[in-house]
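Internal tracking record. Fields below are filled automatically when a chain is submitted to the structure queue. Please do not edit lines marked as system-generated. If the sequence contains nonstandard residues, flag them in the REMARKS field before resubmitting.
Queue: standard
Priority: normal
Entity type: single polypeptide chain
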Amino acid sequence: MKLNKIAETLNIQCDKDIEILGLNTLLDSNENQLTFLENKKYVNDLEKTKAAAVLVKEEFALKVPKGTTALVCDEPYLSLAYISKLFAPKVVETNGEDCIVGENTTIMPNVYLGKGSIIGSNCTIMAGAFIGDNVTIGDNTIIYPNVTVYRDCKVGSDSIIHAGTVIGSDGFGFANRKDGKYIKIYQNGNVIVGNDVEIGANCTIDRAVFQSTIIEDGVRIDNLVHIAHNCKVGRGSILVTQVGLSGSTILNEYVVMGGQSATTGHLEIAPFTTISARGGVTKSITEPKKQWAGFPIMEHRIWLRLQGKIAKLLK
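SYSTEM-GENERATED OUTPUT FOLLOWS
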């Protein structure tokens, strides 16, 4: 869309007819994308952005770099929510090439294959699966019954996705109006699942707002796990049942999270970290190869000592 037309939908004055191809974060935007700044802690990122335009409050307008157009508004996050719909793809494509299916792949009855999708060789897609538009599935992958892979998502080779799992459902993103009404932020990214990944039954992995939610090679995910939008699960990590990752959580390689453990959003966990069952991670863990437990999180050995002292109080 033209930038001036986008601005017009928000009642913002702008006469530039630059072509805008999509939305992105401050640091990842290019000269054909639009971005936003809501939280002042990202002002340094604003000064480095290469976006064509940025939704920004008046107090930060002077920090917008030369070559980037400032779209000044009172509520940049809310404005982003309104325009995200303009860039949302169709829910279902009715035109386009039929799905390409590789050699020796078995497609069972009652499977939906979307337009523009590609399924590799030696795969098995079981009954009731929904493979959306523009989906890619690698070789030797097994999709069990009633799995849903939303449009634009990618699944690698030698992977297994068990029954009832949903790949690419919308991330939980909403902006508040002053009257309390929630405005949907359309999730226009996707999910990328690597090679040699096994995902259990009834898991949900949300698509990204921008770019991708990423599950790297060799990951093992138990049943009933939820991974929110824009998360990254590093190579060889293990997530046990009922783990929950809030948005933009980054797990580095070989992180193990025990049952019912969880994270708050926008944090990072160091490689080879173990989070014990029911552990609550509320801040980034920077030191690798350590075990943590409890809520709020603490080193496992300290948590054990604390539990021992509490037990003594009850005698």
